[in-house]
């Protein structure tokens, strides 16, 4: 967990440095691009997976050998395995009230990497993944080119894993499905160092810490082409730590994220 706190500290330091070092501007220079009530943005997450999958799933037609399979796959390794992807997010902003949502659905069909190649062979994993979050919050700082927002909301994650393979010479198959619903608190900072350039940092943390730990970190650089249209590039981490016997997945989804945004 220490490295995740270090990542948060790094984001905070970067924002603090940019705020202290940037030239103070007339607020009208950036409000032209920050005068919106609704944002809608399809996005694509260049996702990598790091974690553990419980195997063999129940029901199984072969005795259990080991309860986990480790996976560590980059986007380059997963890109050919993506069978379906849909990702969209949105925001609403009033004078002080703010709200947000973020949803994605992904289907992967890939070979699992296992250290038990002598016993387990030809292991195929089909992963149906859905996650999302929705929150309402309060704009508690609106100073010139800096906004800070606090949120309360809920995160949802559904993971359905289908595993097929061979144990020695015997076929093995099974399925597990897990649904997580986790209340959360969140914090977001938006800063305009330049007229068309917006920096955004976001962090949330699940509140059911007595069962498992969930967190999300997201930082983005946003360039406004006009009052209505923007593009962004950033990095996102969505993590879950839990007892592997109670979940089909425990680990992190991570990778670069690109976004096409529209604001009104």
Please, could you describe this protein's structure?
The chain is mainly beta. 11% of the residues lie in helices and 64% in strands. It is built from three helices and eleven strands. The chain is globular.
Which descriptors apply to this entry?
globular; disordered N terminus; 264 residues
The succession of helices and strands, N to C, reads HHEEHEEEEEEEEE
Q: Strands across the major sheet, in which order?
A: 1-3-4-5-6-7-8-9-10-11
Give the termini separation.
39 Å
- What's the helix count? 3
Strand content: over 45%
Structural class: mainly beta
Outline the low-pLDDT stretches: 1-7, 13-27, 113-119
Oligomer: single chain
Helix share, percent: 10-25%
What's the shape? globular
* Major sheet size, sense and barrel closure: 10 strands, antiparallel, barrel
- What is the mean pLDDT? 77
Task: Compile the SSE list and pairings.
Elements: H1 2-21, H2 28-31, E1 38-54, E2 68-73, H3 75-78, E3 82-93, E4 97-111, E5 120-143, E6 146-167, E7 170-191, E8 197-206, E9 212-224, E10 229-242, E11 249-263
Antiparallel strand pairs: 1-2, 1-3, 1-11, 3-4, 4-5, 5-6, 6-7, 7-8, 8-9, 9-10, 10-11
Quick take:
This protein has 264 residues and is mainly beta. 11% of the residues lie in helices and 64% in strands.
